[in-house]
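Fold this sequence, please.
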Amino acid sequence: MDGSGRNQLVTTTPSDREIVMTRVFDAPRDLVFEAHTSCEHMSHWWGPRKYEVVDCEIDFRPGGTWRVAHRGPDGDEITFFGEYLEIVRPERIVWTFGFEGNPGGPETYTFEEHDGKTTLTSSAVFPSKEMRDEVLGSGMESGAIETYERLDEYLELLKEQTD
């Protein structure tokens, strides 16, 4: 947690082609996992604060595809897309993660619960160091920080609804 009491995103590059991001959420694993499974959930938290989800399609099953488009305050749209390769509820999601101009590659999300909190780790492998560095230079980390802050807020709402 940072000085404000919030959980921080930790980003590392363990190899020339990888980006690993880790963040702790004050919510049970089942809830954090579920928030990743449908447009109903993801439309509430996907993307930085000033971005709005304008299109979402999720077929949450191995072999299913996903697509989420969001629009920024300047009107520009960014579309993310991929395919679900493996789903182990509520432990792991393996999917491909791409966006316009970047075909992406495999990304693995793992969900680990300890004392009612969930550690979410995403590990992305890119085809080359250059592509990884391009993604790092694109503002991905600041976007992920805001996205995870929004997810944290959404999880709080879901927890209140289930109490």
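The CA atoms of residues 80 and 128 lie 19 Å apart. Confidence is low (pLDDT under 50) at residues 1-5.
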